[in-house]
Amino acid sequence: MAAIYSLRIEKHVLGGLIKNPNVFPEVERFINEYDFYSDVHNTIFCVIRDTLLKKEKIDKVILAQKIANLGISFKDDISIADYIENLAFTQITHKATIEASQELLKLRIRREIHDGCGEISEWVKQNGNLEIDEIVSSCDSKYNEVVNKYEVEDEPRNIFEDLEEIVEERG
After folding, report:
1. Residue 3 in 3-state DSSP?
2. pLDDT at res. 85
3. Inter-residue contact 139 to 124 (CB < 8 Å)
């Protein structure tokens, strides 16, 4: 079974944001802190995002200090400064940062669907006394709640494109 998270991709995205901060506006449209499985990576992303939104320059030392000021620590007492330095050492292009960010989004969606299906599985175990049609319709409804959160087409829609037809029809 394929993993539903990848610390390696998370590191790749963070390294890409440190090396190519100009890519941030492109990737922030589809990724956020919830795409990071690791709490440490989640925090690093939040600090990078806050820094860039304040129009400040990404500096490895200042970034590490901001994270240290939050009281974040690593297992085995790994230095946050060394960790940030290693992330910044990543050789990743602008385009590869976008691609890694898209992969990170895909992993989060897979995790959320996996978790949602786990909740459905538990619900089925606890509701065996219901009629078949109630079980099927409830599971269908719960599954649709999980998958309808995602729009495959992420482009803006013109909500007024059918307005003329609607006005004519009502007139």
Report:
1. coil
2. 93
3. yes
